[in-house]
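Team,

Forwarding the record for the chain on the shared tracking sheet. I've put the sequence and predicted structure together so nobody has to dig through attachments.
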Amino acid sequence: WMRAAILSSSVGVADQILVDLFKEKAAGQNREQIVEALIATALGKDLDANLKTLLSLFETSQVEPWQLPALRSLLDSLDRKSEWLTKLVERDDAQLQAAIKHLAPLFEEARNLALEEKTVSPQTIINRITALHLLGRGIDQRNEDIELLSEFLSVTKPPELQIAAIESLRRLGRQKNILEALPNLASQPHQTAQSILLSNNRGVKLLIDALVAKQLNPSDLSAASRSLLLSHKDETIRKQAQKVFASNPNDKRADVLQKFEKANSLTGNADRGQEIFKKQCANCHKHQNIGVDFGPKLSALQDKSVNFLFPAILDPNRSVDARYRSWTAVTKQGKQVVGMIAEETATSITIAQADGRKVTILRNDLEFLKSSTLSFMPEGLEKDLTPQDLADVMSFIRKN
């Protein structure tokens, strides 16, 4: 209630409240949220008059811990008004120009903080996220900042920092950088990158052009992203997506699919299918309390038709969810690990291997980490199956 009371009474005096608040160096529990709201209130009242007052708060002899989060809040408020420092500094206002130029040490501190990797703690990650959100928003070194942000589009970086870099590059209009890094992003950053690219026409055009030119593999996109392109309001985009996603680059599997096609019409025996599942599938999949809970949840496939399951089993690389790709990691000591990323933290990644073992590698120890366009699920299961076996397995998977 205290926060609400402060904000409700701040209209007309938000700038002065901020001045008094920043005189108190200790950060309170809700300080950043209050600062953000007060800045928005101050700029909403009189941008020209209050902006100079707010900028003067950053003219200190050394960078204070509160200043970077406060600067981010100020720049976010200006963004909502379609105002940027590069635009404001062009005004015929010497005082405003000087105040903006005095922000240079803060942007330099943000660059240094973004690269701080010696200390890893929740607060350090929060500070580095703030720093990444400031890069490229000053009046100089924009290209250098974009290059630095692009270096964070790698699974060798903590996922929170990858996402912050993606969001900053979006703000700077560098969707091309995001697109180029898409195949080598994992899990949540990969989803964030796709969402950003699909959020506007320019990003959609970049995506579809890359797919058509085979610079991007269809398996680099999630099922949800593919669906959005296939149902896009632009007819040209829809037709291009239909053409790209309809083609199957793995023609080698066509003969296998044809050979086993009769499995679709055979009557499956779920009990026999359970025994085959234990031998062929249980190392990576868990179903009805049998097997290892590692790959996709098969319980979600119980309502799927055999026409859906059939190609998914025999041609696993036709449509690959980014979460289940194969990754190759090489450590600085020369150790190579191939598997699927099972877990990520700020300091490490855990790779699950085909034999069920999990290997955790510190991010600082990674020399190389690259994804494959192939699914972690191997091809060739048909070598140990007959069409009847396949029908039995599909019956077991679909059994409720």
